[in-house]
Here is the input.
Amino acid sequence: MKANAVIRLKLPSKKELEIVYEALVPETVKPATTRSKAELKIEDASLVLTVKAKDTVALRAALNAYLRWISAVFSVLSALEKLG
Here is the structure.
């Protein structure tokens, strides 16, 4: 893999950290493409996303996908919080 990135996200609570982690782990186990590979782990109060890709185009696509999924999880959590 020629391109890689590490993103560390500090989340507001341990509960949210675990929810995001559990929601995204299946995506790392069986990636949609062979052009990139992602790894998630929890370190301290942060979610650490490591993406390795064959090229920068694949890296960008994978990062965009994971960041959109994280955003979607937060949108759902926010909607649920408003309900109740």
In short: Residues 3-83 form a domain with the TATA-Binding Protein fold (CATH 3.30.310.50). Residues 40 and 49 are 5 Å apart (CA to CA). The radius of gyration is 13 Å.
